[in-house]
Amino acid sequence: MRYLKQIYFEMRHQKMMTWVSIGGTAISIFLVMIFYLVDQLNTITVAPESNRDRILIGQNMHIKEGEYDRSSALNHKLAMKLYHNLDGIEMESLISAWADTQHIGIPGEDVTKASFRTVDQNFWKIYDFNFIDGKPFDEEDVNSGVNKIIISRSIARKLFNEDKVAGHELLMGMQPYTIAGVIDDTSKILLVTGIDIFGVYQPEELNNQSSYDESFGETQMVLLLKKGITKEYIKGQVEERYKQLQAEISKKGAEVFYHEQPYDTSTISKGGYGTNTSPENDDTVKWAIYAIMILLPAINLSSMTRSRLRHRISEIGVRRAFGASKASILLQILTENFIITLLGGIVGLILSICCMAWFANFFMTGTNDMMSDLRDRDILPTLEMLITWPAFFYSLLFCLLLNLISAFMPSWKASRLSPANAISKT
What we know:
The chain has about 425 residues and is of the alpha+beta class. The protein has 14 helices and 14 strands. A six-stranded mixed beta barrel has the order 5-6-11-8-10-9. Strands 4-12-1-14 form a four-stranded antiparallel sheet. A hairpin with a 2-residue loop joins strand 9 and strand 10. The longest helix is centred in the last third of the chain and has 38 residues, at about 325-365.
């Protein structure tokens, strides 16, 4: 306790330097944590995407025929050919490739815009939605192609002013749809599940889709890996199927390109690729940014630490004259700096979480490209996505690294001063 009181006294004695150090640390941690939180949102497992680390998605097709170079989403038949019955897959689901914007409403009331995606019955087994009312689609619903939909809580309240609306009807695209269930709202940051309304998936060839042809359509395949199965194992099988497809279409003089599919949700969230390009998986730039964000403020904080210690040379000399060891001097100075760094880190962490919670749209400009027609809507993370144990752990780790880099050398030099030299410099 006496040790902490002494540290507290020293911090009060040099108020200006203490607050400048805390502020500088807070800004540094704030910048690092903003960068980390944005990256974390691409990988965090949170309901209804609790199986995110075991999910792969087969998205697009890229084919070149003569002078024509075409790429787009898959059609149903090709999706089944490439991804159906892969070894190591626990469950697969067919969904529409894009989230459309639909106008919905009830007769006699104003219409509103909502995001819409079609899914099959397995979708509700892969993703763990919380149903407030009703139930998900079953195989009979999908096979019959009925006009059933599942809506979010916010849509239910907006249209009906209540949650329990299963069995009610609404109009979407001037067509009547029966509400099969109501689910909890999900963050728009979640690429696949951050949707307002889900309809029943139908293959293009059965649904008279104008874009249907031999290769392209509006379908994606969601794959849930069995536990212990690696992404590389699944991708290896898919690559072999691409080679088989190439052997088939080469007779037409066509060439198919394998762009390292299927992709995990982290790769999809980060973007940086298109229907005819492969994703960039090199994290060198990311780690370089982390290093710069830690080293630059560490250099500045090191200068502040040296400045604080210059005012304490005589104190260190007196303590050394009365028998204080070099190790105890070093430990005290490092501890004092760590407390200052930790206080700044806590402030920086709180600021970064608040900033992400309120201004996520500014930082998440590359996220959820399929929702580009809904940019006027807030794309906000939930507190569950921001306040996590990894966030606290990495914040503490950044503080420790910052402290060691900025304070160790000045503290080590100060601890090695001889008592006579230290006192003579007063």
